[in-house]
Amino acid sequence: MKRILEHFVGYLALERGLARNSTDAYFADLSDFIDYLEKNSVSGFAGATRDHILDFLEECKLAGMEVTTLARRLVAIKVFFRYLLQERRLNVNITDIMESPKLWRVLPEFMSGDEVSRFLSAFSGRSKDPLEFRNRCMMEVLYACGLRVSEMADLRLGSVNFDDSIIRVLGKGNKERIVPVGRTALLFLKRYMTVMRPQLAKDPSVAYLFISNNGKRLDRERIWMVVKEAAKRARIQKEVHPHTLRHSFASHLLENGADLRVIQEMLGHADISTTQIYTHVSSRRLLSVHKKFHPRA
């Protein structure tokens, strides 16, 4: 089983283009699962059952693992079993209809439409201060495109295509994807690039889109601080970080009828199972609305 796992990790790296950190995480999670199977006298994956998987996760839970780790391990097992079916090492995928128990599910936090409006308005869009305007522009782009903070930091001047209203993003595993940009974010980008950024630029050779007061690439930590400052100014009570905007982007698209696979493409998720968490967010909201407004709920 360990030999098959090594082939799977190679497949993830070479054919799926996953980064080293991601393949290492898959290998560690699945190695522990294989050890559990062997300890329970299961000599091959064909002998594994859903109960084995649930018992393994329960054992991990009792060992004190965080719910995020449990959720990640279940995703790893599901992706692995899909691979085994694809490679015809299994005749049936026992994980196909499995969902993580509710107590283990980690639903991403996201902001409501009103909270997003307050958040985006935290930095003035009419400011003549290049740093204030840069911060507003960054927040608009984060929400408009659902970018990871590292993807935001790595954007270049040539990443924005105003004619086609898109941004080229370099995501995990050095995979490039194209993400649409809304009209409002484009307006902020155009003013930032033509009026505000030149006031910050000290070295013409620096091609990064978002730069500091010293004209250097704005790092992830600074972007985190800007997001925290916006949430504080907007008086948003919940914990807000750059990924909250990414979650809000996906959740609001789904709520308004966007196709899940289109959202997967825009987020740059290698596997649809990662994107499916937002269907649970949407379902949770529907249940909440039903309970609040239905007379016999």
Keywords:
297 residues; mainly alpha; DNA polymerase, domain 1; hpI Integrase, Chain A; 3-stranded antiparallel β-sheet
Report what the structure shows:
It contains 13 helices and three strands; from the N terminus they run H-H-H-H-H-H-H-E-E-E-H-H-H-H-H-H. By secondary structure, the protein is mainly alpha-helical. It has a three-stranded antiparallel beta sheet with strand order 1-2-3. Strand 2 and strand 3 form a beta hairpin. Helix 6 packs across helix 10 (242-255).
Strand order of the largest sheet: 1-2-3
In total, the number of strands is 3
Strand percentage, roughly?
Answer: under 5%
Integer count of domains: 2
Mean pLDDT: 87
Could you give the distance between the termini?
A: 49 Å
Low-confidence stretches: none
Main beta-sheet strand count, sense and barrel state = 3 strands, antiparallel
- Rg measurement, Å: 22 Å
Q: H/E element string?
A: HHHHHHHEEEHHHHHH
What would you call the structural class? mainly alpha
User: What overall geometry do the principal axes of the alpha carbons give?
Assistant: elongated
CATH topology assignment of the largest domain: hpI Integrase, Chain A
DSSP helix fraction: 55-70%
Q: Give the C-level CATH assignment of the largest domain.
A: Mainly Alpha
CATH architecture of the largest domain: Orthogonal Bundle
Report the CATH superfamily of the largest domain: Intergrase catalytic core
